[in-house]
Amino acid sequence: MTYLQINGMDLYAEVAGDGAPVLLLHGGFCSLEAMRELSDSLVPHYRVHAFERPGHGRSADIDGEYSYARGLADTLAYLDSQNLEAVHVIGYSDGAILGLLLALEHPGRVRSLTAISANLDPSAFSTDEEHQSLVLTPARQSPVHTAGGPDGDGASASAAKPDVERLHYERLSPDGPEHADVVLNKLFRLWTTEPNIPAADLTRITAPVLIMAADRDSIRPDHTLLMAASIPGARLCIVPGASHGLVAEHPKLISTVIRGFLP
């Protein structure tokens, strides 16, 4: 396994393939395993870079709170460590938020952006009850950031099936299975207070952008439409019969759409 010193932390990282550089940014409480099938589909055509943020996958947790500003700083430090001036960014959920911030604040580093199930602020969640559940049930799997089942119903599937991301965490984390709830508590505090990106700011994005989400996503459809409409020339893809876990639920479709978008 490969670990890199990023901002004073040992973060797990992977690189595979040849061609134009692609950076994968995973979601909250996810490891790189959540994007494994997508990565495998890209490796024959691109050089795929990926790393796991603190408290995720094989990277140990930090003592402090999480923030998207800190995640963005780690992303920039990773790009610098790999001598990557500009990359095609593919971000999922929290990773998609980081991709938007990267395109806004460091446009020269982004060749293109695929943002899957992103949100601009915490009001984007589908219902007030779903938003409140982030605060009230931090020890349980997230109804917002955890993949559902193949039927696309994340809520009902989560009740009937194991939390795949938690199983990955328990298997991979150097902090041990019992630390999962610590990470989830910090993530829930993050998700209910950040990000805070004005939609009007998206007009400054100059890179080609693909906005993706699911028709049953926990991010409201009108919020996804607002993001796509606010970015000049952005493409929009709504995946039918899927939840916020669309990357795991429909990996072949997601890969096909992204491959068609990337140059």
Automatic annotation (TrEMBL):
GO MF annotations in UniProt: triacylglycerol lipase activity
One Pfam match: Abhydrolase_6
InterPro entries: AB_hydrolase, AB_hydrolase_1, AB_hydrolase_fold
UniProt KW keywords: Hydrolase
GO process annotations (BP): glycerolipid catabolic process
Keyword Phosphoprotein set for record: no
Sequence segments annotated as region (Disordered): 140-160
Location of the AB hydrolase-1 domain: 22-252
Protein name: Alpha/beta hydrolase
Taxonomic lineage of the native organism: Bacteria, Bacillati, Actinomycetota, Actinomycetes, Micrococcales
